[in-house]
Amino acid sequence: MGRPVKRLQAEEAAVKELRRRAKATACAVREPERASIVLLRLDGMSVEAIAAQLVTAPKRVSIWSKRFEEHGLAGLDDKPGRGRRPSIPEAKVARVVTEVTQPPEGRNRWSVRSMGRHAGMSHSTVQRIWAKNDLKPHVTKTFKLSNDPKFEEKFWDVIGLYLDPPAKALVLCCDEKSQCQALERTQLGLPLAPKRPRTMTHDYTRRSERLA
Question: Can you list the positions of beta strands (E) in the chain?
Answer without folding.
Answer: 140-142, 198-200
